[in-house]
Amino acid sequence: MLAGLTAAALTSCGSGGSGGASGADDGSITMGFSQVGAESGWRTANTKSVQEAAKESGITLKFSDAQQKQENQIKAIRSYIQQKVDVIAFSPVVESGWDTVLKEARDAKIPVILTDRAVDSKDTTLYKTFLGSDFVEEGRKAGKWLVESFNNSTDPVNIVELQGTTGSAPANDRKAGFAEVIGADPKFKVIASQTGDFTRAKGKEVMEAFLKSNPDIDVLYAHNDDMGLGAIEAIEGAGKVPGKDIKIITVDAVKDGMQALADGKINYIVECSPLLGPQLMDLAKKVVKGETVPARVVTEETTFTQEQAKTALPNRKY
Ligand code: AHR
Predict the structure, then answer these.
(1) How many CB atoms are located within 10 Å of the residue 4 CB?
(2) Which of 36, 39, 43, 50 best tests ligand 1's pocket when mutated (most atoms within 8 Å of CB)?
(3) Which Pfam families match (predicted)?
């Protein structure tokens, strides 16, 4: 499968890559897009949004799926540079280790847009803009709900945390934002925290281990819906009632997560919108023309209680 994807990424075409503004003389634009993978419902919705928006805006999209591996993303970016695409967009699986390949793109005069996830490069001239959520704020929102929900009790609150992919921006930032808020009150204790790699299967597996070694779990904080949904299976398998015996907070608000919230199995969801495609294509058109774009474009997002999920579900797009 990987060979097929790499081959697709290596198919030659493209027009830009030289001079100040890239793009073909006829105004057509080719974008090379390196996606993280297909690890979650969020990711599936994000891929669909990018592919549909490219079509609608007349941008030719070269798409590759990195299967959650940084080396695959670096290979894909290098192949896009070789093909002289007009613009490269990617959602970096982890934050570190991008400087070399981003310098190669800059040397080839191909603009790069970060979408969804950030890199930790000190040199911000390596990319034109970063479009995506404020993951620290998402973590804070999760923490605030927890603090408010337990504000009438002085008993200790034992929390387990299912982290996203190790080293990824959403895992680092959602952990940090949550810790910042709950850290103000010592009754909140994170008694176990481990990665579930943003997948349902890993979420279930790690939650099973948490339940075996910790008999008194009050709260699960999962960095995405998929891990939360896997954990629900583990909790039910252990004879406990998700949403009651163990309160659950997740991030994303994909349909399956929202259904579990409406059903009372999840208690609160912090939204993270995957519908980045249209904004990404607008930004791509601008950077290809050499126009100035904001260094950071933050996605607008909300939160959902169980009642709000019931109302929102019928019109939920993803
Ligand atoms: O980077 C966004 C995160 O990646 C989503 O919250 C998660 O579901 C996905 O895998």
Answers:
(1) 9
(2) 43
(3) Peripla_BP_4
Supply the pLDDT for residue 36: 98
Atom index in ligand 1 nearest the CA of residue 41 equals: 8
Residue 8 has pLDDT above 60, yes or no: no
Cα 289 to middle of ligand 1, angstroms: 30
- The H helix count followed by the E strand count for the chain is 11, 12
CA-165 nearest atom, ligand 1: 10
Q: What per-residue confidence (pLDDT) applies to 21?
A: 60
Q: Which residue lies with its CA nearest to atom 3 of ligand 1? A: 170
Name all residues whose Cβ lies below 6 A of ligand 1. Answer: 39-40, 42-43, 116-117, 170, 198, 224, 226, 251-252, 272
Over residues 264-280, mean pLDDT: 98
Residues 287 and 129 sit within 8 Å (Cβ to Cβ):
yes
Question: CA 77, 79, 80, 81: dihedral to nearest 10 degrees?
Answer: 90
5-19, 70-84, 259-273: which range is least confident on average?
5-19
